[in-house]
Amino acid sequence: MTGQPAISDTPWLDQDAEPFIKIRSVTKKFGNVTAVNNVDLDIYQGELFCLLGGSGCGKTTLLRMLSGFEVPTSGTITIDGSDMSSVPPYERPTNMMFQSYALFPHMTVEKNVAYGLKQDKVPSGEIVDRVDEILRLVELQDFKKRKPHQLSGGQRQRVALARALIKQPKLLLLDEPLAALDKKLREQTQFELMNIQEQVGITFVVVTHDQEEAMTLSSRIAVMDQGQFMQIGTPTEIYEFPETRFVADFIGSANIIEGRIIEDGSDHVRVKTDLGEIYIDHGQSTKEGDRVWIAIRPEKIHLSKEPPAEPGPNQAVGQVDDIGYLGDTSIYKILLEGGRIVDVTAPNQIRPKSRTHRITWEEEVYLHWEASSAVLLTK
Ligand SMILES: Nc1ncnc2c1ncn2[C@@H]1O[C@H](COP(=O)(O)OP(=O)(O)OP(=O)(O)O)[C@@H](O)[C@H]1O
Ligand SMILES: [Mg+2]
């Protein structure tokens, strides 16, 4: 074995790793609208990085600044070691797949994909080879003589991807690449996109407003709201350790409960809430009397018909107000004394035969959760 250093899967944790993209204090204003508000971000080579947020939060604007189609009002963007301030789009090591990717309707798949190389006057023999290779990668080699209207939505999407990849950019920027696809096809295409990204090893920055998509695709996610980053982290970090109510609520679903710190230990906190006392088994920089919020994911709450063996924190009792059957899981709306509704999800493992064990409408049920399951939020 030679002593080749392994390429880290988590370069953002490596103090010495040099970011591929450096975004520093970048703001973009359109008149009096601040679309992107003083953001800082590092993205590393080989990442599939997602910008996630609701409509109008500034995702496309940030992507367009990376591609050079928009110029920051202030701040700097460095890509692959070069300051991009005075570099026009066509001289950047980037390629962008737009929110509405327009294929040329009168051209075949092959010609659509070859177009960029023709423009660049690449020799025709090389064009043929590269088009073949890229169509094999997106699994469209049998479709090269078709025109866009003879393809499905997913196939068209892959043509657009092939067209963006063929110029071998170092950075591919994709704006809502899968938005036009229906749910099933979108999920399938997400995996294809990940595989393709892995094979080509190009850094992808993907814009999406679909949180499941961001969770599936990304190495890391930046959650955006009103032109700012609310949190940047891996899908697991963002889901398990949201830092704000906004993020806890935006990613997945969460029961958010307001309370006050009644005990602030170094390795635990106790919080008084209208759901009773909540005990969390990790410390936090809070103090007694602070107003806080607690997020508990619906799947982290256990439901039982039996009362707990002994009273304690992290328990509640309520009545089943509603049940939503989702196939693999069911969602239970539990009405607590005092009128609060708590969402609980549970997998449907029980077969219809054993109906008697099932929890049903209006039944009294007991809720409990582990001390590690609740997340304490201070904003
Ligand atoms: N050229 C422009 N002129 C004026 N305002 C603009 C312009 N482009 C974007 N904006 C505004 O900037 C804000 C951010 O827009 P942007 O297109 O970046 O949002 P987005 O996050 O991509 O939204 P969506 O999910 O709907 O595509 C919006 O308020 C938008 O109206
Ligand atoms: Mg957009």
CATH architecture of the largest domain: 3-Layer(aba) Sandwich
The ligands bound in this entry are: adenosine-5'-triphosphate, magnesium ion
Helix content: 10-25%
> What's the shape?
globular
Strand content: 25-35%
Strand order of the largest sheet: 6-7-8-3-9-10
Q: Give the total of beta strands.
A: 20
Counting helices, strands and paired strands, the structural category is alpha+beta
Low-pLDDT segments: 1-5
According to CATH, the homologous superfamily of the largest domain is: P-loop containing nucleotide triphosphate hydrolases
**Total helical elements:** 8
Order of helices and strands: EEEHEEEHHHEHEHEEHHEEEEEEEEEE
In CATH terms, what is the fold-level topology of the largest domain? Answer: Rossmann fold
Give the integer mean of the pLDDT values. 90
Radius of gyration: 25 Å
Oligomer: single chain
Distance between the termini: 50 Å
Number of self-contained structural domains? 2
* Main beta sheet strand tally, sense and closure: 6 strands, mixed
Features:
OB fold (Dihydrolipoamide Acetyltransferase, E2P), Rossmann fold, 379 residues, binds magnesium ion, five-stranded antiparallel beta sheet, alpha+beta, 2 domains, six-stranded mixed beta sheet, binds adenosine-5'-triphosphate, globular, disordered N terminus, single chain, 22% helix
In short:
The chain is an alpha+beta fold and 379 residues long.
Walk me through what this model shows.
With 379 residues, this protein is an alpha+beta fold. The protein folds into two domains: 230 residues, P-loop containing nucleotide triphosphate hydrolases (Rossmann fold), CATH 3.40.50; 125 residues, Nucleic acid-binding proteins (OB fold (Dihydrolipoamide Acetyltransferase, E2P)). Helices cover 22% and strands 33% of the residues. It contains eight helices and 20 strands. The strands form four sheets. Strands 6-7-8-3-9-10 form a six-stranded mixed beta sheet, with helices on both faces. It has a five-stranded antiparallel beta sheet with strand order 13-12-11-14-20. A hairpin with a 4-residue loop joins strand 17 and strand 18. The longest helix is centred in the middle third of the chain and has 18 residues. The radius of gyration is 25 Å and the shape is globular. It starts with 20 loop residues before the first strand and ends with a strand. The N terminus is likely disordered. Bound molecules: adenosine-5'-triphosphate and magnesium ion.
